[in-house]
Every structure is written in structure tokens, then in C-alpha cells.
Amino acid sequence: MNHTAKKTFIVLFLLFIAGCATSTVDTAVKNGASRLNVEAIYALVDNNTLHLESSDFDAHIFYASDGLLAATSQVDTNDSGHWDIKSDSTLCFKFRLWYYGDLNCYSVYQDPERDAYLLYTKNGALTYTATFSTGNSKNLQITSRKKDAEFMRSSLNSGPKSQPMPEQTQRPALVTASSPDIVDAGPAATSEEINTAVHSMALDCPGCNLKDADLRQANLVGANLKGANLQGADLSRANLRRANLEGADLSGATLLSTNLPGANLKDADLSGADLSGSNLIQADLRGATLNNSILTNTLQEGSKGL
């Protein structure tokens, strides 16, 4: 190895070591990183701009005080969305288009070696490195006006509280007796046990009869429900990102604020279905029946068949 090659190798090795220094929460804490609490996160982002960087992401995001955000990336694409803070001291935000419009939450740590912040997933993996600038430093325009459920931001904005606002509790989902699987569950099963079983079943249930089932807030990412009978089912706020619903019967179904980015809804029957506020970004609805369906305030960028 010649002198130039050795020098290049050493530089790359040092860069690799530096990158690994904060790649996990445990390592960052050992190196002196300190986690921001709810109030500190609020002071950092409220009405300010963060420059978020990762291996495949480089964008400036302005976090407006009303919970809306505006973003611009290095490749001159813009987006908008919402942000909030959960009582477990995580910063949550979702974009209108980027990352399929999913809500993601991160713990925030201050980098002990430089004027920067580190955003980690719940599994402790480093997602973004962030630098701070006061106010709307990139003069980004807020375009989104649809609001999601608030966690902590509104209470912090109204002044200090003696105790943090508890997170919103989810309504218990009760499956109706019209589903044949409920009869099989047996009289001793609780509604919670039935609900869990039906949600799990729905992840891989092509052709299943789930008529009138209560699947509110169900996590059905990538689920296979091809040709399933979901007539009259309640899928409000369920996460059906990239789910296969081809040919499914969703007539009369309730899909309020349902997450359907990238979902396959080809030839599905959505007649009379209420999809108000749902995310249909890049969803495929070619051949779908949409008679009397409600599509108010839906996100449709990149969708097919609408």
C-alpha cells in the first residue's frame, strides 16, 4: 500500500469510527450525550428551524408554534406536515408526502462534542443529526392546515403545568358478533383478547369475512386482505400502509383518517365508504368502485385511479 493509499485508508477509518461514536443511544450516553426532556425539546423546536441530516436525507424543517411544519430538502423539493411532543419526551412529526406520511417519533439528545442534536428511534438507532437555527431561517411557507391529535405541544404553549398532560388513550375496539371468528373465540374470551386475535388475523387473511369488524387503529402495515369482505367495517385510523386490498369489499366501510399510502386497492368496492382525512398517497385505486364514497380532505398525491 503506497503512502497516498495509506493516508486515504486512515482518513476513511477515522470517519467510520466517528460515525459509529453516536450510532446508538447507549454509545452516545457513554460519550456524554444528554437526553432532552419535554420542555427542552419544546424550547428547541417551537417556532425554530432544524437542519436534519442522515445518509439519505438532508432537509430544513420549520416547526411553527401552531403544530404545523414546513420543510425543504437539498434537492429542491418541499413538503409540509405536523409536529408535536409526547409525554415520554419524544419529538413526533409527520410529513404530507415524505415517508408515506407516517408519524415518526424520536428521542432527542444533545451532542457533547459539537453544537448539534441527535435524534434516535425507539429502538435506539440514530436517524438524524440536527443543527439549530432561530426562527424560520429558510423563510418556508406553511401550507398544511389539517390538524392531528395533540400530545404535549398545546399545553406547553399555554404555560407551565404542574404535571405533564397524559397521552391520549385509545378507545377500546370491540369486535361485533357478526364475524364468525368471534364465535370461535369462545364465551370465556374478553373483548380485548378477541380484538387482539382479530387484529392479528387481519394481517394475513385473504378472502376472510370481516364484515362489520371493528379494526380501529389496527396496525395492518403490509397486510394481505386481498378479496376480503370488509363491508361496513370500521378501519378508522388503522395503518394499512402498502396493504393488499385488491378486490376487497369495503362498501359502506368507515375509514376516517386511515393510513393507506402505497396500498393496493385495485378493483376494490369502496361504494358508500367514508375515507375523510385518509392518506391515499401513491395508493392504487385503478378499477375501484367509488360510487357515493366520501373523499373529503384525503391526501392523493401520486395515487392512481382517482
Short key terms for the protein model shown above:
Pectate Lyase C-like, Lipocalin, 306 residues, eight-stranded antiparallel barrel, 2 domains, elongated, 18% helix, disordered N terminus, alpha+beta
Task: Describe the protein's architecture and organization.
This protein is α+β, with helices and mostly antiparallel strands. The protein has two domains: 20-157, Beta Barrel (Lipocalin); 170-306, 3 Solenoid (Pectate Lyase C-like), CATH 2.160.20. The chain is built from six helices and nine strands; from the N terminus they run H-H-E-H-E-E-E-E-E-E-E-E-H-H-H. It has helices at 3-20, 25-30, 38-45, 153-157, 180-185, 191-201; strands spanning 34-35, 48-54, 57-63, 68-73, 78-86, 90-95, 104-110, 117-120, 126-133. A hairpin with a 5-residue loop joins strand 8 and strand 9 (126-133).
Structure described in brief:
This protein has 306 residues and is an alpha+beta fold. It has 2 domains: 20-157, Lipocalin (Beta Barrel), CATH 2.40.128; 170-306, Pectate Lyase C-like, CATH 2.160.20.
Approximate shape: elongated
Under the CATH scheme, which class of the largest domain?
A: Mainly Beta
Count of separate structural domains: 2
Q: Total number of β-strand segments?
A: 9
- Report the C-alpha radius of gyration, rounded: 23 Å
Structural class: alpha+beta
Strand order of the largest sheet: 2-3-4-5-6-7-8-9
**What does the main sheet amount to?**
8 strands, antiparallel, barrel
Uncertain runs are: 3-21, 160-189
The CATH architecture name of the largest domain reads Beta Barrel
Binned strand content:
15-25%
Tell me, rounded to a whole number, the average pLDDT.
80
The multimeric state of the shown protein is single chain
CATH fold name of the largest domain, please?
Lipocalin
Helix content: 10-25%
